[in-house]
Amino acid sequence: xxxxxxxxxxxxxxxxxxxxxxxxxxxxxxxxxxxxxxxxxxxxxxxxxxxxxxxxxxxxxxxxxxxxxxxxxxxxxxxxxxxxxxxxxxxxxxxxxxxxxxxxxxxxxxxxxxxxxxxxxxxxxxxxxxxxxxxxxxxxxxxxxxxxxxxxxxxxxxxxxxxxxxxxxxxxxxxxxxxxxxxxxxxxxxxxxxxxxxxxxxxxxxxxxxxxxxxxxxxxxxxxxxxxxxxxxxxxxxxxxxxxxx
Length: 246
Hints:
One of its GO terms (cellular component) is cytoplasm. This protein has 246 residues and is mostly helical.
C-alpha cells in the first residue's frame, strides 16, 4: 500500500528490505513496486514509471542465477533434464509463493481497480514484481550479492528442482503413462467463465470416453495441468501396478 508520508514510506521500505535481505536503492525499490495500473492512474505513460523494465532485467538475472546453480549442483544431469528443472523453479506459481513469503503484495503500488480485483494476491503480478525486485537488487549491488539473496529465497525450490520438474509437466507424463499401458489418448474439454480480467477455466479430462479427472485455474494451462494430475491419481487407483514386460 502506498505510504502517505516520507516517514511512512521509509519505514515501509525498511520492512521490505529486512524481509528481502538485499541492498536496493530506495528509488529503484519504489519503481520495482509500481504496477502499471498505478502509474496509469497517476498520469504516467510508457514503461519508465512502472516496474516492467526492471522485471525484464530481473527475469534475465534470475535465469542466469538459477541456471548456474543447477549446472554446479547437478553435474550428472543432461541438458534435457536441466531445462525443465529450471522451468519448474522460475515459473509463475513458485515465484509467486516466494513473493508471498516476504509479503510482497503488502508493498505493491496498485491502481484502485486492480487492488479491488485482488491484484495483491495474483500469481502473475506477484511473480512479475519479484523479478522487478531482483532487477533492482542487481542494479544496486551487482550479480554476486543478488545471487546470495536469490539463492536464499529460492533454496527450497532449487533443492527440490528434480522432483518439481517431474510434477510440473503432468500432461506429458500422463500421456506417456497412458501410452505405456495401452489406454489411448487423453482429451481435454475446456470451459471458462467470468470477465476478461478475472476469468476462471475449468477442464474435464476424458480417457476412453469417460471423465477421469477435472481441474480448475486462472489460466487454461493451469486448469489442464490440474486435470492431468487428477487423471494420474485416477490412473494409479485403477491400475496400481506397472505393466509387466512379459
